[in-house]
Amino acid sequence: MLGGGLSGLMAAWQLRRHGYPVRVWEASPAAGGWAQTLPWPGPKGEPGWLERGPQALQIQPGSALERLGQALGLVYLPKAPKGPRWIGKGGQRHPSDLLRFPGLRLGERLRLLGEPFIPAQPPERAGEETLAAFMARRLGRGFAREALPAFVAGVLAAPPERLGLEAMPQLRELESRGGLLWGGLRHPPQRSRHLAGGTGALAQALRMALGAVETGRTARRLEVRPDGGWQVWDGAVTQETPSVVLALPAPRAASLLRDLAPQAACLIAGIPQLDLQVWHSRHPPVPHWTRGFTLLLHPPEGRGLLGVVALAAEDPRSVPGLLQLRTYLGGAYPVASDLEDAPGLWSELRRWLPELQDPLQTRREDSPGAFPLLEPGHAGRVASILEALPPGLHWLGASRFGPGIPNLAEGIERWASVGMAL
Length: 422
Ligand SMILES: Cc1cc2nc3c(=O)[nH]c(=O)nc-3n(C[C@H](O)[C@H](O)[C@H](O)COP(=O)(O)OP(=O)(O)OC[C@H]3O[C@@H](n4cnc5c(N)ncnc54)[C@H](O)[C@@H]3O)c2cc1C
Fold this sequence. Notes:
Helix content is about 35%, strand content about 20%. The chain has about 425 residues and is α+β, with helices and mostly antiparallel strands.
């Protein structure tokens, strides 16, 4: 297994469960990839943490992620209290309540209520539909124009016109169960849950269950042996193995495959990767925000600022008595030059959140290649990549299954049980 991010760890765990011996090579000194909870002490050295990647996980009952969590004996905190959710639009923040959403005309609001009567698209016509077209078909053009861009930018950091439905596979499922409103009411999405120990606890638990994950080992060359097996070289050691799983960021996977499977390498390299800027900050507390909050920006006004999430005061990762924020910029949206440095960013944030006082602590974490952008027709591209891979070589990760950890867990569980032919 090359890559010890969550994809590599989950895939190795599934392979073990099916009885295959597996070794994991991870380039960096720590396993987990983006899923790491890092210490970030408070201004007086108090214990505190930040997440490199996801702050919370959506765990649906009966999902692969729930099964994995149960098998690993993970402990979840009682559901976090839900603070307000706002949309920043027209220079102000508004509750993100659909029926009162700013910018929608009366007819467009009424059109939202007609959603359950829109028939599902036959699967053979679904492959090339963009997320924007899907939402316009189901909830109307007004919703797609006025509301959708902020929701999608806040989650996938890209405009809905550039994304295919593979980026949000749960939508297709809801459509087949009677529509987004009925389907959503009958199977409401679970509120996000926090792992005791942060999201990084999932990677840690997998690592413990697997035993050795070999960190500090960067796969630099991959070669096929005359007997059809493989050898991997890390600059010092060569490992021989009957099969190799690439659970790497797409550009790394493409560069290892360049000479072995040029067509697959070219297709993988063609999956756009989005860079995010993430600012973590701690501020004096603000009354009424003790349950945390979420603010998403309407992208044309955000100028590259996508959203801000505040942890609830009781979240064990935050420092008691301080408000901890995480602010996202970038992705597919160019960041205005005045938002690139701290003073410009805080002055912009205060436009939307005037109650916010100056930060006591800040930390900028750049996340190059944070998310893949899954374009319409992604499933076809994946099928062509899999066909172009030589036998014994496997390719996994966010660029195949989508960036959401629940989607990764689902895809990897399916791959291990039916799709894998080691
Ligand atoms: C800021 C941010 C916020 C996010 N928020 C959410 C969220 O709210 N919900 C959600 O579900 N998902 C979220 N994600 C996405 C999610 O974290 C990722 O999709 C997921 O963690 C990807 O896991 P991975 O193992 O595929 O890739 P990675 O985490 O990138 O792991 C790949 C691993 O391969 C290693 N590697 C690279 N080259 C080599 C080599 N040559 N040899 C050996 N090892 C190598 C790397 O060091 C890395 O550890 C977020 C991501 C970021 C960055």
